Structure prediction request, 242 residues.
Amino acid sequence: MVARGVLVTGGMGGIGRAIARSFATERAQVLLVDTRPDQDCFCAELEAAGATKALSIVADVSDDVAVERSVDLAIESFGRLDVIVNVAGMMVYQPLANLTATDWRRLLDVNLVGAALYVGQALRRMDAGGCVVNVASVHARRTSAMVAPYAAAKAAMVSLTRSAAIEGKSLGIRVNAVLPGAIDTQMLRDSPNIRSGAEVLEPADIGSPDDVAAAVAYLASEGARFVTGEDLVVDGGRMGRL
Prediction:
């Protein structure tokens, strides 16, 4: 069986790493896309974990030239591109009244435009049977103060997922989204609401990056071949409680 080619944006973050490791255990070929240059050691770790091949590229996901270059690298190196997982994201804690146009554009570029560019590449260049998984957030449905651009971008990412699934159906390309809740990552630990104690999370309400990776693995699997245009909440049931 030919190893699948997988591209993971934000591959050096907590959730991105867990997703890359998950595909490595399936002996996939994995390309990490991130702005951080310290990726070589993690690529070696992925190959030790079972990846047929692990590569990395430093790229800004909001730059369409860089996005195309990363997809070129995946196809040239792996001979195929079967899965794209859009994880790259950033969060800034500011009240709406303080946000400038520059703030909005940067947050939307990273959290939405990057995913849209990779979806476009998938629809142009993937073979039938390929899939995209967008990692959005529960903020797409319910949110809080101080994170308006992030929440708006993630809500738009869910809408993007539906549109891409419609356009991808005739091509045999599936597109789905995962909406993580509170996940034990640096982004959660950096939250000023968590640090100040304004928001208190019960241990049972905090998931691990592996929980998100498991959901992504399912949506990218043959078992989900009839699932497209959906957004799967992964939050331990927190959002569903009254």
